[in-house]
């Protein structure tokens, strides 16, 4: 790495001379401490993040638009602080939202597609309302894999028409993963400390894993999906992407809760919320007495012979040394079927659910240039230059539209098959071995958690020979968030593997810094 590149990164990650606060790896706790010491204001912090976005986004392409009202919201937070009227841990903290989460303000919600540019909802998503109640500053919208990666099987992760290809900040050729790619890239590159992503299958866990940040996918229903562009009521979940387990826990605590607009799911999941919230489970000795099941097959196969596998063995020793009982080499029944989206029926079912749910969502918008999936497909065909149709087709959207031939009985049958795979697979593994959590290397186990609506959290686990990040994933049964927080936080504090990107794109970053 060149000296000029080092200077460039230090310049980008540091505050202007005279300030004692640095953006580099700043956590919510760091930010609130700086607020309390009058080292920085929310407005100044927001300005610094906007400057980071302006400098780095042309290269990383992870932010679709910034909120024109962000500075005004920050100033309001500063006035509250002066009046000793604080709203909580997120008060004055900028938050970036995946571009599938409605804000009902001056920003768009488009899933990265020009087809939804100008669409308007009557009301913000419940999670956004909760963030606003907590005093957070809504900074902007993060890019994503267009239409949640459903647009085309040819489309690479992190690509959308509005921003182009999002890049992994650690390895230029590295997979940023999707669909919440922008949310993870922005946090990793210190363009924001806190972001929200959504997951149907792997869309929080995988981007967090690949970009060396913490991703927390809650039990389905723990966070409301109202006001979030849907795929599947069975599997959709909204969760935090941050740099630390503590930050992810603080954000989760701020966005959970019963919502009449998503009543059935949030009512059921609200029974899992512990009295006193989730912060109480941030314990350094959280691994003590835990029983952890290690599942290697098939998740570790792609890492065979790499630095990651050797590091994973070191992490297992850490788990034991921290007081956990490690049950190694466990197997999930029918894992080959579960991991094949066609054999399990997951993909055909998701396509059918997506068609129904997106049609309902589009019809309910206050204003929209398209009112159905069929109209989205037609829009794309009529605007090939705008939607980059010469680059990637829309076979995925067309396949979803064709599921109109499926009837309710077929969908119900597919749902029951998925439920049985979860009962006989992951649930059986957990219960028969009396586990507190399943532990896997990498992000592929996210599919196991997704089809059953189970929670999972990924924590940075290290970097391979090329500098590509990998994470350690902890998964549990529904409502297991307290145990997962204890385990993940204790593991994180013992290993502290996360580091900022510092050697990526040397020549390109030089050019951006000198422009």
UniProtKB/TrEMBL annotation:
Gene3D superfamilies: Amidase signature (AS) domain
Pfam family, one: Amidase
Keyword terms of this UniProt record: Signal
Domain Amidase: 45-484
This protein's record includes keyword Signal: yes
SUPFAM superfamilies: Amidase signature (AS) enzymes
Signal peptide per UniProt: 1-18
PANTHER family in UniProt: AMIDASE, AMIDASE C869.01
Protein name: Amidase domain-containing protein
Organism: Punica granatum
Organism placement in taxonomy: Eukaryota, Viridiplantae, Streptophyta, Embryophyta, Tracheophyta
């Amino acid at each position: 790495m060149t000296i000029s590149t080092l200077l460039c990164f230090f310049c980008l990650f540091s505050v202007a001379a005279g300030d004692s606060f640095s953006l580099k790896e700043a956590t919510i706790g760091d930010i609130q401490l700086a607020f309390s010491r009058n080292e920085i204001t929310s407005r100044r912090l927001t300005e610094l993040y906007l400057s980071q976005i302006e400098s780095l986004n042309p290269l990383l392409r992870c932010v679709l638009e910034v909120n024109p009202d962000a500075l005004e919201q920050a100033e309001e937070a500063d006035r509250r602080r002066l009046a000793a009227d604080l709203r909580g841990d997120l008060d004055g903290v900028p938050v970036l939202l995946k571009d599938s989460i409605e804000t009902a303000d001056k920003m768009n919600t488009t899933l990265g597609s020009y087809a939804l540019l100008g669409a308007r909802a009557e009301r913000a998503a419940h999670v956004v309302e909760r963030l606003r109640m907590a005093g957070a500053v809504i900074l902007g919208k993060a890019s994503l894999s267009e239409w949640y990666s459903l647009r085309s099987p040819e489309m690479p992760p992190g690509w959308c028409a509005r921003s182009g290809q999002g890049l992994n900040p650690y390895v230029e050729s590295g997979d940023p993963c999707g669909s919440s790619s922008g949310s993870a890239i922005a946090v990793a590159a210190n363009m924001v400390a806190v972001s929200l992503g959504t997951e149907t299958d792997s869309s929080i866990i995988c981007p967090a894993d690949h970009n060396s940040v913490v991703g927390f996918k809650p039990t389905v229903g723990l966070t409301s999906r109202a006001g979030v562009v849907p795929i599947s009521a069975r599997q959709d979940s909204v969760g935090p992407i941050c740099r630390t387990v503590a930050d992810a826990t603080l954000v989760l605590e701020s966005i959970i809760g019963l919502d009449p607009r998503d009543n059935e799911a949030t009512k059921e999941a609200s029974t899992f919320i512990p009295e006193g919230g989730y912060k109480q489970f941030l314990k350094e000795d959280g691994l003590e007495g835990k029983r952890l099941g290690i599942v290697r097959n098939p998740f570790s196969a792609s890492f065979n012979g790499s630095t990651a596998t050797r590091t994973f063995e070191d992490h297992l020793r850490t788990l034991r040394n921290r007081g956990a009982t490690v049950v190694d080499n466990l197997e999930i029944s029918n894992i080959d079927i579960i991991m094949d989206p066609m054999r399990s029926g997951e993909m055909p079912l998701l396509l059918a659910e997506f068609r129904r749910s997106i049609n309902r969502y589009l019809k309910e918008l206050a204003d929209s240039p398209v009112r159905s999936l069929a109209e989205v497909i037609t829009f794309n065909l009529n605007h090939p230059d705008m939607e980059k149709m010469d680059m990637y087709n829309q076979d995925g959207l067309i396949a979803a539209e064709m599921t109109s031939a499926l009837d309710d009985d077929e969908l119900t049958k597919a749902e029951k098959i998925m439920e049985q795979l979860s009962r006989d697979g992951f649930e059986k593994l957990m219960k028969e071995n009396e586990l507190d959590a399943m532990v896997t290397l990498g992000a592929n186990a996210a599919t196991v958690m997704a089809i059953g609506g189970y929670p999972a959290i990924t924590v940075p686990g290290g970097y391979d020979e090329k500098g590509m990040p990998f994470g350690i994933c902890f998964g549990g049964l529904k409502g297991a968030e307290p145990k997962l927080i204890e385990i993940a936080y204790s593991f994180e504090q013992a290993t502290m593997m996360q580091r900022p990107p510092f050697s990526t794109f040397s020549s390109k970053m030089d050019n951006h810094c000198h422009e």
